[in-house]
Amino acid sequence: MTSAVTIWTHALIALLFMAAAGQPGDAVGLPRRRFALALGSTALWALAVAGIGAGDLAARMTESARNIAWLVFMLALVRRRQGSRGWGPVLVHGVAIAVALVAAALALLASVVRDPQSADLLIETMVVFRMITAASALVLSRDLLAAAPGPAPGGVRLVSWAIAGLWALDLFAFSLRYAVPDAMPWLVAGRGAAMIPVGLLILAGVRRGGNWTLTPSRTVAVRSVAAIAVAAYAGSVVLATTLASQVWGEDARAAQAAIVLGATTALFTLLSTPWLRSWTRVMVAKHLFSHRYDYRAEWLRFAETLGRPDEESTSLSTRIVKAVAELTGSPAGLLLLADQAGLVPGTAWAWGGDDMPAGSTDAAIAAHLSATGRIVEVDAVRADTAPPGEAAAMPQWMLDRADAWALVPLFHANMLVGAILLARPVVDRPLDWEDLDLLRVAGRQAASYLAEERAHQALADARRFDEFNRRFAFILHDIKNLASQLSLVARNAERHADNPEFRADMIDTLRSSADQMTTLLARLSRQATPRAEVPRATDVAAVAASIAAEQRAGHPVVCQSTGPVWAAADPARLEQVLRHLVQNAAEASPPAEPVMLSAIQEGACAVIEVVDRGCGMSPAFVRDQLFRPFASTKNGGFGIGAFEARQLVTAMGGRLEVASREGEGTRFRVLLPAVHDLEAAA
Predict the structure, then answer these.
(1) Could you tell me which residues are beta bridge partners of residue 600?
(2) Which residues form the Histidine kinase domain (predicted)?
(3) Could you write out the three-class secondary structure of 239-251?
(4) Residue 416: enclosing H or E segment and its boundaries?
């Protein structure tokens, strides 16, 4: 099993390093000849291990050649990057090369010595010198990574990291080889598998002239560091148990069990610690990336939190606090809203409310934030390093709260709409320029969401007021119609009071007006519930006749119908429509000119016509203003009747048509869905 893994892994290593050596062109900033020599010697070493074995003299000599080639390349790269021609780097690298030559000499001497014990001793000494070579080269690789005073090309950076990984792997492998000599087969196979990522990193560094840059995400980097740490932890446990078996022999079982149990408990304890996870993220962002934040990922999470409510934060204000707090790793936050008195406490996210100020109005800090727009670092105020004006404006309750960390103002259109007080992160740190820039942009975005929510609330309130005003205007219009109708009845009573038919019509009109006023009072009541408007089979001719009889006392109305005309309609709403139309026609007609009211069936429609011979309307008025509220041709008119009539007809599934000429009169046509006689009877 181990031999097969050794062959395949080292063969792949040879292919990777030969592919890197065969890349066309010169890598930017790399000494090409020395680099090709180091790659080629590494490929030869891997082929020797795969074809002959790691314990053969050829494999040991090619490994020494590989080490010397990489040290020579590192020296040339450091001198090129530093622009130095001094002897200091040459001396330091020369010592490491000398140690590698001693290791090669010991391997050669061990192959010619006849005494097995002497040969084993030489091999053990060679392993020690290989450890010294790897440790020295690993220290020198640090200088290699720091050699460039400015930003190095991506290829140079990747190759430098690969070289550091190669020496770190050698140091670990030879240390384990020295501690556990019997683990040699597994060690060779594992070393081959671990060398594959090194080869891939070097190949990535030399592709495209060295300009290829590997940019893993922060999530991948954090998880990779965690995986490496866990692997190193497991390797340490294996090494400790192996050393225990070497020291105690057959009695080491209890010690090994204690080591494994204690290490497992400690590992799970560490992994479940929030502080360790936060510390790892901070260290990875600080040492592996040029910026603290992955702005793309942070902004996507910020937008996701604002746009999608969860079980913890259903309201928008809570989601805003949570989104801003999560940007910097703050565990809690408090929203302070701006009003005329200052800042008042609003919604909180994971914020303990025991010491929240009740009814506090922090006018001084609100004025300071509005004037400066600065993000306040609360620790700086506590340490007396903040500007004097800021320290004087800071409210005492914020300073008394130990976990208060930063106060982020929320500006929308240069107006302060609030502020968010953030709690201290799990891994405490001062605010830097990246924190300030990110919080400033996030604060403006959050303020726009708050302003938008307020605008929606104001619009909803305006709509409710508009609906109330519209309903009140309809009722006021109905009252005006009743007043006009009663005025006509009173005026006609002076001339026709002795007529019994007129008195009968007058009594019916007064009774109908009283009923309508009672209905209007009910509609004004708060406890009144709207009646369901369900169209049903209705004889519209009978409704038209009743309206004509009702209105006849105020103005002459002639109703014409050949028989029942059935339509799907709401009788009460239809009566209201016809009252509007007949009343408007009567007001537009001369006193002696009757209003014509008729009901007929035309195909699939039941048609009710209201015709007058009054003053008429212009085409422009009919087109642009007739069905608009508050537009009327009559002095003192509300302009509501035609508008409400069309709405009521449309609600019943019909339509309202009008034809008018100035000086000739107007014809209104109410078209409703017709109902056949059999359906009406059913």
Answers:
(1) 607
(2) 474-676
(3) HHHHHHHHHHHHH
(4) strand 415-423
State which of 439, 457, 475 marks the end of a domain. Answer: 457
- What is d(CA 129, CA 99) in angstroms, rounded to the nearest whole number? 6
HEC string for 77-130:
HHHHHHCCCCCHHHHHHHHHHHHHHHHHHHHHHHHHCCCHHHHHHHHHHHHHHH
* Domain span at 77: 2-210
What pLDDT does residue 212 have?
44
Classify residue 602 as exposed, middle or buried by CB count within 10 Å of its CB (0-12, 13-18, 19+): exposed
Write down the pLDDT at residue 649. 92
Residues lower than pLDDT 50 in the chain: 25, 27, 148-152, 210-214, 526-530, 532, 681
User: With contact defined as beta carbons under 8 Å apart, do 81 and 29 qualify?
Assistant: yes
The answer to whether the beta carbons of residues 402 and 412 sit under 8 Å apart is: no
**Cβ atoms of 329 and 426 closer than 8 Å:** yes
Q: What is the pLDDT of residue 529?
A: 47
Q: Which amino acid is at 180?
A: V
Q: Where are the alpha helices (DSSP H) in 361-499?
A: 363-372, 378-382, 388-393, 396-400, 433-496
Backbone angles phi, psi at 625, to 5 degrees: -130, -15
Using a 10 angstrom Cβ sphere, with 0-12 exposed, 13-18 middle and 19 or more buried, the burial of residue 102 is middle
Question: Quick one: pLDDT at residue 25?
Answer: 47
> According to the model, what pLDDT value does residue 152 have?
46
pTM for this prediction: 0.45
The pLDDT of residue 243 is 72
Q: Can you give the C-alpha Rg of the chain in angstroms?
A: 46
Number of domains forming the structure of the chain: 4
CATH code at position 167: 1.20.1070
Amino acid at 292: R
Residue given tokens 């139309």 in the structure block? 581
Is 142 found in the same domain as 13? yes
Asked whether residue 548 is assigned to any structural domain, the reply reads yes
